[in-house]
Amino acid sequence: MDKQGLGAGQGLHARVLDSLGPAITAGEYPAGSVLRTDELEERFDVSRSVIREAIRVLESMNLVASRRRVGVTVLPADEWNVYDPRVIRWRLAGPDRPRQLRSLTVLRSAVEPAAAGLAALRATPEQCAELTEHALGMVATSRGQQLDAYLVHDIAFHRVILRASGNEMFARLGDVVAEVLTGRTHHHVMFTDPDPAAVTLHVRVAEAVRERDAARAEALTREIAAGAMAELDILAP
Amino acid sequence: MDKQGLGAGQGLHARVLDSLGPAITAGEYPAGSVLRTDELEERFDVSRSVIREAIRVLESMNLVASRRRVGVTVLPADEWNVYDPRVIRWRLAGPDRPRQLRSLTVLRSAVEPAAAGLAALRATPEQCAELTEHALGMVATSRGQQLDAYLVHDIAFHRVILRASGNEMFARLGDVVAEVLTGRTHHHVMFTDPDPAAVTLHVRVAEAVRERDAARAEALTREIAAGAMAELDILAP
DNA sequence: GTGACTAAAACGTCATACTTAATTGGGGTC
DNA sequence: GACCCCAATTAAGTATGACGTTTTAGTCAC
């Protein structure tokens, strides 16, 4: 997977970050809470430079704001850079994971159909092949408790769609989709095999893209998205 | 506007950041370029701490990666955290502004209709009022070279829609939309008054939301988005 | 030619001294 | 008693020197 985000990278500042970030996004420090550098310094038993660098990163995510004479104050949640991959991951690991999963799924539902439509227009032959390959992979692993293998193909499929759209903003949501799909499989603990209807839809999307049928690719992807929302009891708008 | 992003905040590290960030996103340092801290230290005439903190922030945006013995290397553009507000602003200020504007407009076109649909279901009476107020403001300022006043209402209108959707991921795109709209007005230098059709559409969206007609709000917003894409010669999918 | 060992280069960490800005509170004036 | 101004305090910001760690590259022996 990706390098940043998971596990305490290397370096002390990353360790501090991976302790403070989740704590803040989990709401352990309510908005307005104050962190003092020297207190953290003692708490983590590291030097000031390390704390300062961690704080700078948190500040760049808009999780905190640092002001002289007052300290580092935690910002309200609606100011956080919620598109930052690490913030997303921290929040998905924390208590408001369900809420976060819903938000992200709604975002997916808006973006992926559009991406699929564009992909139908712009996908390269290689990307079409990848798409077909992963759709077939999903079919092959859709029965008999092969959830992990299925997940791999599912993630890859959506990643290719987003990348093939040719839009960099869409492409960058690949990690988000991966997190959501992983979360769904592992948390919502699906002991049951995937919905066959969803599997079929993926195959048909791959077909539509291959045939350059943008409208159909978009509509089919919208159906996939509707299914994902239904799973989370989100009313279909 | 927002605190972070514009102008060299306060503090030396912010000044370094506002010099390096735009340079990197502008492609002045091709992917793989190496920056050495002591070189930067001398170049900006600041201490190591300052450089290191700036580097940490660039690293958190995935613009660079720092490795021992080799230095700070610039990452390829497709790894950047393109949703970071500062990255967005830097890129909009740089040479690939047109490309960036297109990407963001396509993103808007995917997100805003969905947001409008949700807003119709969830907007509070206050938000409905704000919406109407800004739509009327747009009407009032749509003639006679009042582009700046018009822009204010336009931005506010779209911000309310995104916020009223009740989805935090959508809400956070308010700044992006603001940048795009501002960019369109100031760069694409519109000497002409806004398109009357677009103005009318905004009024009708406000109506639809007030009347809780999600489908209509979504469809009308889709029309607005199509107009924005047409302005940039993006083929409507 | 292959292997291991060594040396150097760059970032990473620590400790400390000093600077700057903002808040607080006291004292003075009206 | 209310208000304003100034100074003291506090915590972040900056600078600097020393040392640790990792990675690359080069050399030397076999």
List keywords for this structure.
DNA-binding, disordered N terminus, elongated, mainly alpha, three-stranded antiparallel β-sheet, 237 residues, homodimer, 11 helices, 3 strands, 65% helix
Compact description:
The structure is a homodimer of 237-residue chains. With 237 residues, chain A is mainly alpha-helical.
Report on the architecture of this protein.
The structure is a homodimer of 237-residue chains. With 237 residues, chain A is mostly helical. Helix content of chain A is 65%, strand content 4%. Chain A is built from eleven helices and three strands, in the order αβααββαααααααα. The first copy, chain A, has helices spanning 12-25, 37-44, 48-60, 85-92, 97-122, 125-140, 147-164, 168-171, 174-186, 196-210, 214-231; strands at 34-35, 64-67, 71-74. A three-stranded antiparallel β-sheet of chain A has the order 1-3-2. In chain A, β2 (64-67) and β3 (71-74) form a beta hairpin. Chain A starts with 11 loop residues before the first helix and ends in a 6-residue tail after the last helix. The A-B interface holds A 3-4, 13, 49, 52-53, 56-57, 59-62, 65, 77-78, 81-86, 103-104, 106-107, 109-111, 113-115, 117-118, 121, 167-172, 214, 218, 235, 237 and B 3-4, 13, 49, 52-53, 56-57, 59-62, 65, 77-78, 81-86, 103-104, 106-107, 109-111, 113-115, 117-118, 121, 167-172, 214, 218, 235, 237.
